[in-house]
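In response to the reviewer comment on reproducibility (Comment 2.3), we provide here a single inverse folding case reported in full, input and output, so that an independent group could reproduce the run without further information from us. The structure tokens appear first.
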């Protein structure tokens, strides 16, 4: 049995399935998804429905799932509607609206029940997994973005996050295009960011970037996988 953690998928079902094959994921293993399964890419709802049926997959709430819940709430404010509309919701919303009402309710019920973080121990090592960064409430845990200098506020554990693209942390805005071109010219892609405070798995899956990758890490030995 092995524990795997996977970063933001953003609707890229092909990469998700290829990663499962690459790590030889089995019914005896456990996979923790750091949220943001939906939006940007085309397959968010299909992925959600697949994940809902996988008993050995633990999904955390991401800010995109949080935006979806806010948008579809009967009390949604204009700000919440505009926010999700501006963040790549089109393929997710279109696929959601094609589902029968009973299926829509199952999807929303599943999302409402997602935790914002999980703490676990593997081989004597403690981990805190969260989409954005440890916080005091749901909003903070799915939306907070660390800096590269941010330290882990949870004592005696390793912090693993997603949400903030690695590129945005390692390069200032004015240098990101040149850095991306250099990686592409060298046939390379973004990789996980290891800092003193955390490990970030968001390698831009779902974005229109040739250097993007879906990242996954095995907690038993911290081996990294990319697709």
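Designed residues, in position order:
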């Amino acid at each position: 049995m092995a524990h795997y953690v996977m970063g933001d998928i953003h609707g890229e079902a092909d990469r998700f399935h290829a990663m499962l094959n690459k790590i030889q994921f089995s019914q005896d293993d456990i996979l923790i998804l750091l949220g943001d399964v939906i939006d940007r890419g085309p397959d968010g709802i299909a992925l959600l429905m697949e994940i809902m049926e996988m008993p050995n997959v633990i999904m955390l709430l991401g800010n995109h799932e949080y935006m979806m819940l806010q948008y579809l709430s009967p009390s949604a404010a204009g700000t919440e509607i505009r926010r999700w509309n501006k963040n790549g919701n089109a393929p997710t919303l279109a696929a959601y609206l094609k589902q029968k009402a009973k299926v829509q309710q199952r999807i929303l019920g599943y999302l409402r029940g997602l935790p914002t973080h999980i703490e676990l121990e593997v081989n004597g090592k403690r981990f805190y997994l969260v989409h954005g960064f440890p916080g005091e409430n749901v909003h903070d845990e799915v939306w907070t973005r660390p800096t590269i200098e941010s330290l882990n506020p949870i004592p005696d554990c390793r912090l693993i996050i997603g949400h903030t693209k690695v590129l945005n942390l390692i390069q200032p805005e004015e240098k990101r295009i040149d850095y991306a071109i250099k990686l592409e010219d060298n046939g390379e892609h973004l990789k996980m960011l290891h800092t003193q405070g955390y490990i970030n798995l968001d390698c831009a899956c779902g974005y229109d970037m040739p250097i993007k990758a879906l990242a996954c890490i095995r907690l038993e030995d911290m081996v990294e996988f990319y697709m």
